[in-house]
Amino acid sequence: MLTFLMIGAHPDDMDLNCGGTAIRLQKLGHRVIFLSMTNGNAGHMTMTPEKLRSTRMQEMKVAAQRFGGIRYETMDINDGYLTANIENRDRLIRYIRKEKPDVIITHRSCDYHPDHRACGQLVMDCSYLVGVPLICPDVPALRYHPVILLSEDEFTSPAPFRPDLAVACDAVIEQKIHAVMAHHSQFMEWLAYDGHWDDVLCARTPEEAEQAVHDRLQRTFAEAVQRFPKAFPEGACFGEVFQVDEYGGKMTEEIRRAMCGPDPEE
Ligand SMILES: [Zn+2]
User: 4 near 31, Cβ under 8 Å?
Assistant: First the structure.
């Protein structure tokens, strides 16, 4: 069985970008770890950073359960302050060496959010150094290089995203939405406020607001198939796409089969 380490800048990034893939892999018996580099303690309009940090920690635990019992961890760096510095690079090198992932999924390093950029940069910076024994010599260096996959974005400079790998998520889409919505303070509160989501903000009941967020997420998760229809099998409506990063190890048929093969049996 394979180990997939999905590294995002914030709690909710991996959930959105590879949550369906994570559910499928977990059901197939693979090991899935979500690592959020920051604790998400900046994205709110009323809560204090301390209160928001503990709220986000709690929401990560709920999400982990809803994703099928994956491990959901954080480096606990303050939201908005992630940089690709040596300290963070060394922490990530040690983490990757200890978990020995076959595959790492992360952001591309061209992105509107500085934390996403730094996260993508940090993984790139680690990609070769995880195998260099004199860097962080207290943890044994890897004798292989994990495959690195980059999650989808819409940025075009210096190059548009390339869909090398497409995972149809139709069979798990409701579970993905339910799991993503565990980040209540993010989707029901912060993103609704920040994005002026009037259907959520003006909802008459909490149930109506939840339904509005559900429907927004459902539309969002259909976009990859609409954008790259040829990458997906015929009939797919929901999915996730990934670009193979040239700094990582060589993509294998085993990984491709695990990610894009038939749906796991219930
Ligand atoms: Zn993010």
Answer: yes
pLDDT tens sequence for the chain (266 residues) = 999 999 999 999 999 999 999 999 999 999 999 999 999 999 999 999 999 999 999 999 999 999 999 999 999 999 999 999 999 999 999 999 999 999 999 999 999 999 999 999 999 999 999 999 999 999 999 999 999 999 999 999 999 999 999 999 999 999 999 999 999 999 999 999 999 999 999 999 999 999 999 999 999 999 999 999 999 999 999 999 999 999 999 999 999 999 999 887 76
Two tokens, residue 23: 């559910």
Residues making up the chain, counted from first to last: 266
Question: From ligand 1's centre to the CA of 185, what distance in Å?
Answer: 14
CA 232 to chain CA centroid, nearest Å? 20
CA of 9 to the centre of ligand 1 (A): 5
Q: Is the pTM of this model over 0.90?
A: yes
CATH topology of domain 3-260: Rossmann fold (3.40.50)
Alpha carbon of 43 to ligand 1 centroid (Å): 10
Q: Which residues surround ligand 1, an ion (CB under 5 A)?
A: 9-10, 13
Q: Using alpha carbons only, what angle is made at residue 20 by residues 17 and 25, rounded to the nearest 5 degrees?
A: 115
Domain extent listing, the chain: 3-260
Phi-psi region of 69 (alpha: psi -120 to 50; beta: other; left: phi over 0): left
